Amino acid sequence: MNRILAGIIFFLFISTGYISYLVHERQQELQKLTHYTASWSAAQLVSEYYRFESMLGLYTIDENMSMDEARLRLDIMLSQSDLMKEGDLKGYIDSSKAHQELASQLEQALDYLDTHLEKMNRPEIQAYLKTMHSLDARLGSLSSGALDRDINSVSDANLKIKTLYYIYSATSVLLIIMSAILGLLIFYQNRNIRLAHLQVKSLADALQESKEQLQIQNARLEYDVYHDSLTEMNNRHFFWGNLTETIEVAAKIDSSVTVMLFDLDRFKEVNDTYGHDVGDMLLRQISQRLIAIGLTSATLYRLGGDEFAFLSSGLTETGAVSRAQKICDAINQPYTIYNTVINITTCVGIVISDTERRSDYLYKFADLALYEAKNEGAGKIKVFRQWMLDKLQESRTLEHDMAQALVNKEFVVYYQPIVDSFSREIYSYEALIRWIHPLKGVLSPDTFIPVAEKTGMINEMGKSVLEMACREAACWAVPTKISVNVSPVQLSSKAFTGIVMSILKDTGLAAERLELEVTESSLFTESSTPVNTLNRLRALGVKISIDDFGTGYSSLSRLSRIAFDKIKIDKSFVHSISAQGDALNIIRLITGMAKSLNMKAVAEGVETQEQLESLQALGCDFAQGYLFGKPQPFIDAKIRNG
Ligand code: C2E
Ligand code: MG
Ligand code: MG
């Protein structure tokens, strides 16, 4: 568009210049018309010459006429003859040799007369007139020739003026058209500029709007950085910022800092049993309750999952514990979610310190206290003490020693018989690991298995137990079965099936003689690996028992995903047979369930004849316990040698 406009303006500029040139040209042509022309000069000269000749002729015949009159005519003629030396007539004369010759003869004649006229008598003048008459005809043709030429040049000029007029008119019309186009374009351009202006305005408005939205989003983002989206409580990030701040303020006024960490008991099981929706709603209700009991939102935090925190300064230990108890009481009240009543408790770890000013240390101490509370059981509150730190140190030392023990082959297998409840015949042996510690003697698995599971060492440890047990059982004369415990950590490894298969192959033990004991917690995982592993092993012929049944939080739907061969009733129920009527009912329920699911029931921890008789009365198939034999590093000679 701009190029077109520039082109048109350039054209207008050139056209205006050209029109000026045309006007100038026309002026020139008009000037030619108004000039004295050659024909006029020639006619003047020739008519004066004729008049002079007449005057001389009269003088020769009229005696009374004075010479002065002839002289006057000659002078006029002389002055007229100057026309031949200048202007258009000169140009005309110069254009032909004949004209130049005529002009020079005329000049000679006039010069002669100018010199001799007064000395000449009438007959001499008459004689000279003859010479003069010889020029008449040629002078006449000079005059008519000049006239012809002038007529031609006038008509040429007229033609040129006409042409110039046409060009001028066409250029003017073009100029008008171009001006009109220019006008239109300028109008169009103005409209575009107006439109562009409107667009810029609407863009600016949109920009302003998105700026405002961005500000809102930024505010939301800033809020999200410090708040938990599920419960709207302050989050972990906020916690660490406030912890540092609380410590700084407390340090200035020499006050104590209290950090409390809460961890819900069995929240994972709630999630697994009722679904994550219910779990989320439970967390929301917990946060509402905490706010409802008057705790300011600035002191409460959700650190993630089912972990909460409370921060304060200036509290005494009694004050902190009673505050924790208040929080626990609020959390422990039953919840109704989707018409289901859910009970949940929480453990609390507390640290109150007026000397420790490092935030990560305070957090670690509260966490250690929480760990101890969890160890003690659901709903417990523990205040941090130095021994907790010492214990942690011990556990670290234990980890180190265990790694060493694995290399030194300090782990061995003890065997405990599982017998038929009625015939008391040995049905199988359970392999139970022991650590023959060089300083502490024989250590039971409860002291090191949790650490081995935490560090992952259980994989190597479990593999070596399985290998030792299978190798041992493979050389027995009586094909009694061998039971081996498997940790949830081992089961969640995809390599486990392969490990079992290769051990069976290496030791030559038939798959049907191997029984693996797994706990209910092995199945409480999002991953499908444990279930798949167990199903694959079962397909090979390996038997699967569910250990410590009744202590977990199993749902029937989850249990039905694997066809177990045996259910091992936890020893805590067997021990309570005589003391609690409930225990007997639970055992009855479990044995009944085992029967209907086509499984065998095994009672653990049978120590007395009385317990055995009760179990027999309930139809429990197998029994294991000190009544039949304690775990020993060797097995019955009858089984070994046949
Ligand atoms: P568990 O599999 O339930 O094993 C039975 C536990 O009860 C054994 O404890 C055994 O000594 C004990 N016990 C047997 N009869 C009686 C009785 O009449 N009275 C009492 N009070 N206790 C009895 P132990 O050997 O200390 O093993 C504890 C747990 O450690 C086992 O419980 C098992 O879960 C785990 N464990 C043992 N060996 C291994 C292993 O090689 N791998 C894995 N992953 N876990 C193992
Ligand atoms: Mg077991
Ligand atoms: Mg058990």
Features of the shown structure:
23 helices, alpha/beta, 14% strand, 8-stranded mixed barrel, binds ligand C2E, 642 residues, binds magnesium ion, 5-stranded mixed beta sheet
The strand count comes to 16
The largest beta-sheet arranges its strands as 8-9-11-12-13-14-15-16
CA distance, first residue to last residue: 110 Å
Inertia-based shape: rod-shaped
State the secondary-structure class. alpha/beta
Extract low-pLDDT stretches. none
The rounded Rg comes to 66 Å
**What's the overall average pLDDT, rounded?**
90
How much helical structure, as a percent, in the residues? 55-70%
What kind of oligomer do you see?
single chain
State the helix count: 23
The largest sheet is: 8 strands, mixed, barrel
Bound molecules: ligand C2E, magnesium ion
Describe the structure.
Helix 1 (2-34) runs antiparallel to helix 7 and helix 9 (267-274) crosses helix 10 (276-292). It is built from 23 helices and 16 strands. The strands form three sheets. It has an eight-stranded mixed barrel with strand order 8-9-11-12-13-14-15-16, surrounded by four helices. It has helices spanning 2-34, 38-61, 67-81, 87-94, 97-116, 122-133, 136-226, 236-252, 267-274, 276-292, 317-332, 359-376, 386-408, 449-455, 458-474, 488-491, 496-507, 529-540, 556-559, 571-575, 581-596, 609-618, 637-641; strands spanning 257-264, 300-304, 307-313, 335-337, 340-342, 346-353, 381-383, 411-420, 426-437, 441-443, 481-485, 514-519, 543-549, 566-569, 600-603, 622-624. The structure holds ligand C2E and magnesium ion (MG) (2 copies). One magnesium ion is lined by residues 547-548, 568, 604. One magnesium ion binds at residues 430, 485, 517, 547.
